[in-house]
Amino acid sequence: MQPRPNRQRRWPPSGVLIEVLGRMLRALPSALLRSAQQAALLPGRMAALVTALVTVFGAALLAACSPAPDADANRPTPAAPVTISGKQVEMDYWVLKQRHEQHLATLAQALEDSRAARATGPARALFEGWLYHARLTGQLASFDHAEAALAELEARSRGEPPCREQAELAMASHRIEAAARALQACPGADNRDLLIDIDYYQGRYRAALDSAVALLNERNLPADYVRLARLRQGTGSTREADALLEAAEQRYHNDNPHQLAWLGLQRGILALERGEYQRARALFRRAQRALPDWWLVDEHLAETQMLLGDTDAAIALYDQVIDITGDPQFIAARADIDRRLGRETTALTGITRARAALQIRLEQHPAATTGHAVDFYLDHGPAQQALALAWQDYRQRPFGAAATRLARALHKVGEHRQALDILSAEVDAGWGTAEALQTLALIRGELASAPAGGGG
Fold this sequence. Notes:
The protein is mostly helical. It contains 22 helices and two strands.
């Protein structure tokens, strides 16, 4: 079964959020980190700080057993209950989200209480809390809150600016050059992890890989295995990437349900991109069991169910995810199902709704939305808008995934030669995903069959 060309996936920049977990693990006593709910027993600001840091979107998660077939295709087995303030609560996405938002409120109060002292700790903790909230919920407004906390941190900082936090926010919103500029202001700090990410997103794959291997050999942290896995995935070694994620699991000794779900999700994405749909479904279901109702797992499972022919399950999952997120890419995916079922009027209504929602996101958070917008306009037009956004995406992240989208857009408007030049340069530099190689083969085939002097 051949890998299926896919829309933009949600690998988080490893240096942005995973390293926060590493810093936390080295800085705080392990007794405080055994599970996130223990932080609820700590007083005031410390409880909020510990939880915000413990739950930062980490890398390495403990779930190394092979996934078992699940008899129930539509509802995962609930995660084990957790005890908070003496009460048992089933841990799912909604409980985790509510608890984190309560801690964000506590962190905001701590920031206000420290205004006279101008302490940087509360501002930094609130910044990291909002960055995590963006990853958990997919709400782009969380980046705005993180930016406000960062502005307060900048105002309170003495001496060097908060370069790392500035770079983390820029990376999270796909502004790679801004991240590089931020780190240049603090040349003495150890930001090798972020510099590796910058090399990767600027197309310097060999440099990124060499530095990532060296950092892993030096530190042997779960985050280092996850970072290297992402690089191996992009350069075409998906089996090695899966093995690295499994190695990260074995080096992680916490039990945060979000992190457990995240690793199952990433391994499922690798299987999905290889065309191993049964394995992908098993891994996504395992992620569901770790954190039921998390929309990011459910939307990948919906896509997989559709590929496996279970249309009813896919529709139910997409409807649930759309209710939670209102994300235009999921609205469009749901409309595509209606179209395949012959419901053209319903499909057109869905595409119109998705187009309007996407336009709002592009206006409010253009850098973070551009890649997904390219995918939408490639599928639903107009092609020239897809091309304009693809150039914008490639300029802010000149790496293989953006180059592949740009090549597809150029191919769509008949500019086959330019598409070939851009994408073949990335492949020659080391980019090697199945989608890139398939797109390159398609463009070469188009040029080979074109009349002499034609083909763009």
